[in-house]
Structure of Methyltransferase type 11:
Amino acid sequence: MTPTPTATLVARDWAEIQERMLVPLYEAVYDRLEVGPGSRLLGLDCGAGLALLLAAGRGALATGVEPDPARRALARERLLEVMAAPPAPRVPYDVLLAFSPRPAELARALPAVRRGGAVVLADWGPAERCTVPQVLGGGPVARDLDAAVEAAGLVPDGSGRVFCPFGYADVDSAVRGLLSTGLYQCADPALAEKELAEALHPYERGDGAVWLPNIFRYVIARVA
């Protein structure tokens, strides 16, 4: 499937503006799991592949799954191995990054992870410490990660919180970045841009930059 021009632009906004906002989360997880040479990592819904690049930079063998063809194409431009669906590898993976997957997606990916391998889920932290959901009009709502671990039949193995501020050079960049997440639902693109720009004004600094502090929570579980 060839991405539409609009889908390609949105994917580029994700890759060039938004994706880096989650680097503190990726790095905290990799530090905790000691991801490095010899680690085999599978990233579910990996977007344009920044999380994979960071893992590869530590010496890990990183592979991704991304259903969106525009984001998948950008990941492949970065010379990453990214597929449309979870693979059936000859050697199972040690780590599965499945930060906020639907239950069916997670279930399809779990067979690719070795017994005792780590599965990482993540989502927004406490509502009072997350600015972005407020800007987006009260959503998205954080999932119950512990319940997701239990439902998937995984064994809990710890959790953590990470400060992930979303910082933008100006309101226009903030609007483009936030729209690229797909979290803001509005049928009229022009209206969506206008509404988001208005919602961001309270977070605009004197130099025009936009600063949105957030806390993310992650959980680590093991495949039984």
User: Anything to note?
Assistant: Residues 11 and 71 are 5 Å apart (CA to CA). The beta strands are 40-44, 61-65, 81-83, 93-97, 113-124, 155-163, 166-168, 210-212, 215-222. The longest strand covers residues 113-124.
